[in-house]
């Protein structure tokens, strides 16, 4: 009897252990499912694609696995909705939106239905004056990190985004008579373009090289045309992808029935309402009508004026007259008719407000700021400070993974070459003063660049910094000059204390 009872107890104990082990295993799996799934859902597309685009982790030709719900999108027309996220009550204060460290979450774009064809970004760097390249290279560096999608990456609106980066070939490298590919891989091309008077002309030549208007319309649904004077995009961590923000053009609901939109950070009313050429987005439905404005390629002394007078400015009113809309991102305002444009121009005329980029505006709304060219000397200090703040505090998840491929292509050619056989010294940044106490750049950069011009490409600074710069930022204190410069495609960081003469390169 005792043996029988003992056998029963042993059997029950074994059964209990087996059930406990199974329960423990199931609870562990369930716990993993509960913890892993949300984390996976939180992974930003950019972070996911960063690893996928790294060739050490994934072979060439790797294709993304479709996101959940992708199959259901394929059989319906595309409809996109914009959700605007209001700020707190404090936003009524005029200083509020600029007192924050970074952009506030502004808008979410969600789409259902089949994505549009690809978007094409054409980005041009200017090279006419090598000493002006520092600003453009800073702009380009930011765009490379936050504006370039990976080869297999889709957005809410577009199945892919392709890029053509162009530059007029520097004279020391020769010249080209037709657009010429320097390097290409995946969704990125680097291209020399013939010398011309303006960015619109270069963009038009790229479109011709890609097969012409019909070929581009067949492959692409949207064009973003930028030059090296555009700094951005500036966005919050949760904002919609920048190319989608441009394509939706501020509309609460966008569909194929929405008239084609031309969009830019701001709308100028100088002469006639138009989008300025440093950043233009447009749906390719009207590319046939728009293309003639990209063909003003006269290399005479009047060429630049012709680009503006017969390209940039009249393109705006023609777009409206043809049934398209024009949208200003910074003002979140859409012009739907020529009468809307006339009303805007008249309202601005009354208050003598013509060029919006010469006033301070919210860069988080505009996506891009104009930094470069003649505007560099006139940019509002507040706008410049705001841009610097937004770059400093930009969210890590806004960094896109297409930068890896672009960096690789840039390293394989001479697309960013500043010299060749010639000695070019380009001041990137500099300050004069007492380290961490008072560091002044205003007037310092200009004086150093004058020295380079006076000394045929060499930088010469005398041993009396106060006399050299014409002011003393900290009387009775030891002062230092710190310089970041680029010499023949190489970076250098120099320092000179008061009382030391500086010559670069030596000799």
TrEMBL record:
UniProt keyword annotations, A-Z: Signal
Endpoints of the signal sequence: 1-30
Signal keyword on record: yes
Highest taxon listed in the record's lineage: Eukaryota
Protein name: Membrane-associated protein, putative
Organism of this sequence: Bodo saltans
């Amino acid at each position: 009897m005792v043996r029988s009872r003992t056998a029963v107890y042993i059997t029950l104990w074994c059964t209990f252990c087996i059930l406990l082990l199974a329960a423990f295993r199931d609870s562990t799996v369930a716990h993993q499912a509960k913890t892993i799934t949300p984390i996976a859902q939180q992974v930003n597309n950019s972070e996911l694609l960063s690893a996928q685009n790294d060739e050490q982790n994934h072979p060439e030709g790797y294709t993304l696995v479709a996101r959940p719900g992708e199959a259901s999108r394929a059989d319906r027309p595309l409809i996109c909705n914009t959700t605007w996220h209001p700020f707190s009550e404090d936003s009524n204060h005029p200083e509020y939106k600029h007192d924050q460290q970074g952009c506030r979450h502004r808008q979410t774009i969600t789409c259902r239905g089949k994505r549009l064809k690809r978007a094409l970004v054409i980005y041009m760097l200017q090279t006419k004056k090598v000493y002006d390249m520092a600003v453009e290279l800073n702009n380009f560096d930011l765009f490379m990190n936050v504006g370039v999608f990976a080869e297999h990456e889709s957005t809410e609106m577009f199945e892919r985004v392709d890029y053509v980066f162009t530059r007029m070939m520097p004279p020391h490298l020769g010249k080209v008579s037709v657009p010429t590919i320097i390097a290409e891989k995946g969704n990125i091309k680097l291209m020399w373009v013939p010398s011309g008077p303006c960015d619109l002309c270069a963009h038009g030549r790229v479109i011709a090289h890609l097969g012409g208007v019909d070929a581009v319309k067949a492959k692409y649904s949207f064009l973003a045309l930028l030059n090296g004077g555009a700094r951005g995009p500036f966005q919050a961590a949760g904002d919609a992808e920048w190319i989608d923000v441009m394509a939706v053009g501020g509309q609460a609901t966008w569909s194929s029935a929405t008239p084609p939109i031309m969009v830019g950070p701001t709308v100028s009313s100088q002469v006639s309402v138009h989008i300025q050429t440093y950043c233009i987005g447009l749906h390719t439905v009207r590319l046939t009508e728009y293309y003639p404005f990209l063909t003003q390629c006269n290399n005479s002394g009047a060429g630049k004026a012709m680009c503006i007078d017969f390209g940039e400015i009249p393109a705006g009113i023609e777009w409206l007259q043809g049934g398209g809309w024009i949208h200003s991102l910074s003002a979140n305002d859409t012009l739907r008719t020529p009468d809307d444009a006339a009303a805007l121009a008249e309202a601005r005329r009354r208050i003598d407000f013509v060029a919006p980029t010469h006033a301070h505006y919210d860069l988080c709304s505009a996506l891009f700021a104009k930094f470069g060219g003649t505007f560099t000397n006139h940019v509002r200090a507040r706008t410049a400070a705001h841009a610097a703040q937004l770059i400093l505090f930009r969210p890590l998840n806004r960094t896109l993974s297409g930068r890896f491929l672009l960096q690789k292509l840039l390293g394989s050619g001479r697309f960013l070459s500043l010299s060749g056989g010639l000695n070019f010294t380009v001041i990137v940044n500099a300050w004069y003063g007492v380290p961490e106490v008072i560091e002044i750049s205003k007037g310092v950069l200009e004086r150093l660049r004058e020295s380079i011009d006076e000394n045929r490409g060499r930088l010469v600074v005398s041993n009396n910094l106060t006399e050299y710069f014409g002011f003393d930022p900290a009387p009775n204190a030891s002062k230092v000059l710190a310089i970041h410069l680029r010499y023949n495609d190489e970076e250098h960081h120099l320092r000179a204390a008061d009382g030391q003469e500086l010559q670069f390169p030596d000799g």
